Structure formats: C-alpha cells, structure tokens
Amino acid sequence: MKKLVLVALIASLMTPLSAQAAQTKFVSTPLTNLDFQGATVNITLSAVPAKGGLYIQQCVEAPAGTRSALCNKAVELWISTARGASFLPTAAITFKPTGSFISGTTTVDCTVSKCGAFLRFDHTVPADFTEDQFFPMSFKAAVVGSTTLAADEVTATINGVAVTTRTPATLGYRQVATVAAVSKAGAALTYRSLAPACALNGQQITPLTGTGECAISVTSAGNATAAPVTVILPIRITLGAQTLGTFVLPETLRAFSKTNLPTATNFGERVIYKAIGSCSVVRSVLTMRRGKCEINATSVGRKALYEGLTTKLVTAAK
Q1: Cβ(83)–Cβ(193) under 8 Å?
Q2: In the prediction, which pLDDT does 18 show?
Q3: Residue among 29, 83, 74, 26 nearest 49 (CA)
Q4: Whole-model pTM?
Q5: Sign of torsion, CA 180 181 187 193?
Q6: According to the model, what pLDDT value does residue 268 have?
Q7: What is the edge-to-edge ordering of all strands in the sheet holding 229-238?
Q8: What is the sign of the dihedral through the CA atoms of 190, 79, 109 and 63?
Q9: Cα first-last separation, the chain
Q10: Which residue from 20, 48, 99, 204 puts its CA 20 to 30 A from 270's CA?
Q11: How far is CA 247 from CA 176, 243, 265, in A?
Q12: Alpha-carbon distance values, 137 to 45, 59, 94, 285 (Å)
C-alpha cells in the first residue's frame, strides 16, 4: 500500500501544475494530418470557468511552466461572453491553424517544429496560468510549388496607447478617443465597432455607457505580399468623470467682484455650491470679500453612466 501511494505521489509531481488545475475540457477534431493550407479544426469547450475568457492560439510548444513566444497571431480566437469575442464558450468553435506562420521575425514550419493549439485565460486574468493547456497538432507537407502568404501584421493604438487582445484600453463614458492602426504590408485598413456600447465615427470612438466592455476590429484587406487579417481591440468601459467643463477659477480676484460659476457639469447635471470664508455664492454667482475663499462644488451622478461631482475651488482677494 505504501508503495502504491509513493508511486501516485511521484506521478502527481511529474504532471505539470496547469494540467492538474485546468478546469476547461477541450474536445477537437481533427488535430492530426491537417492540410498545410486551409485546415479547419472543430472545437467544443465545456466546464469553462466564469473567472475570465479564454484564448485559443496556435503556438510552438514551450517548456513546462512557460508560455510560448512563437504564436500565430492571425488565427487567434477570443472565447468569451463579452461583446466582440470570436465565439461564446458554448458555441461550436472553428479554428483555422496553418502549416507555417511568421511570429515577429521568426518563420515557423509546423512540419518541423512541434506546434499545437494552446488554451489559456484571456487578458482579463493575465497572471493566471491554471487554464494553460497544449494540444499537439500535425500537418501534411506543403504541396510542392505552392506558396503561402504570411498574414499581415497590424499594430493599433487608442489615444496613442498600444492596444492588443492582451492589453485592452480603458475609456470612460462619453470619453472621445481615436483609434489608429498601421499595416506592416501597407494594406488598406477598415474599422468596425463590434458592440453597441461604443459608437464609431470614422476612427473616433465614443463609449455610450459607463460599465462593461466593447471592442473595435481592425481588418487588413491584404495585398500581394500579405494575407488578410483582423485584429480585435478590447475596451473596458468605466464611469464617466463629471467636471465643470473648461471653467477655471483664478487664484486671485478683486475684492467685491462677482464671477459667474458654471450652472451645470459637462454631463448637464445641476451644480450646487457651498462657499466657506470671505465669499458667498448665490444662484451660481460668486461674490468676493477680502480674504481666502473655498467653494465646494457637488452634483449627482447617474447609475452606470457617470460618478457624482465633488470638487473644491480656492481663490482669494485683497
């Protein structure tokens, strides 16, 4: 009995931690003898954890406990209930790996390197490796004389900050932002909003709510040197920030002068003022006396849209 227990303990220690802990069940067909071009792998998932979404990637196998740096970005799938995902976790998933691909400056030939489908948590759970699972794939040799164009590489920013499926952007309600992208092959690009939570006018994004997620897709049409590709840019939406618009109260004012304060916030909410010190505010009109003046400005917020306003204005008069 002791010997059996010891053998079981040794076997458990030799099993990668991620394989022991993974909850998602991955069923696919086929994964062997795939066409070098035009392969389709049908995947179903079950027992998907609610903790976060998943990525299905084509990667070269990495050492245990690490994630491969050589993956086929063009065929990556985002599995999530969030708007803009490639598939829902309950959907019949179609995955289209290729016999060769380019990762950065490295060309990978999957008839030589050990490639596979790699399952992992998405960008919402970036440091959790417990769902990491690798499923080896094999490919037929490429047809002699055929050529395969590598997928175009598209890099994108929102308000000048790089965005990928692993590094989403964060925008507040009604915070106008600009999406910009570059095709490495110089191909034409098109932009589309994948969720009604974000309006897209040309390349200008406007979140229409204060919670949840949306996503923008950028598609390269491809050209003679690169195959088409679509990248998805996820956006986390937060409550909007109420302000007094462009109003700035001067640090000093003339004694006994009057200043009109904003009556509404940038979202149209009524502003309530409370003056402390050598001043008074009546109907949003500030009247100064000699000395220091502090004014507390507040307004109500709106659920799922924007936070309430609480700010302090300070000035003085001699």
Answers
A1: no
A2: 45
A3: 26
A4: 0.59
A5: negative
A6: 96
A7: 169-172, 229-238, 213-220, 189-193
A8: positive
A9: 92
A10: 204
A11: 19, 9, 10
A12: 18, 10, 15, 73
Query: pLDDT tens digit string along 203-259?
Result: 999 999 999 888 898 989 888 888 888 888 989 999 999 999 999 999 999 999 999
- The answer to whether 260 and 285 have CB atoms below 8 angstroms apart is yes
With a CB cutoff of 8 Å and minimum separation 6, the contacts of 29 are 41, 42
**Higher-scoring residue by pLDDT: 94, 126:** 94
- Cβ neighbours of 56 (radius 10 Å): 24
Strands 169-172 and 229-238: parallel
Nearest to 22 by CA among 46, 58, 57: 46
pLDDT at 277 over 50: yes
C-alpha 194/C-alpha 215 separation (Å) is 5
Cα separation, 198 vs 171, whole angstroms: 10
Backbone angles phi, psi at 5, to 5 degrees: -60, -40
- What Å distances lie between residue 143 and 37, 75, 99, 146, 166, CA to CA? 9, 21, 11, 6, 35
67 exposure class (CB count in 10 Å sphere: 0-12, 13-18, 19+)? middle
Omega of the bond leading into 30 within 30 degrees of 0 (cis): yes
Q: Which residue's structure tokens are 């990491």?
A: 132
Tokens of 145: 């004389």
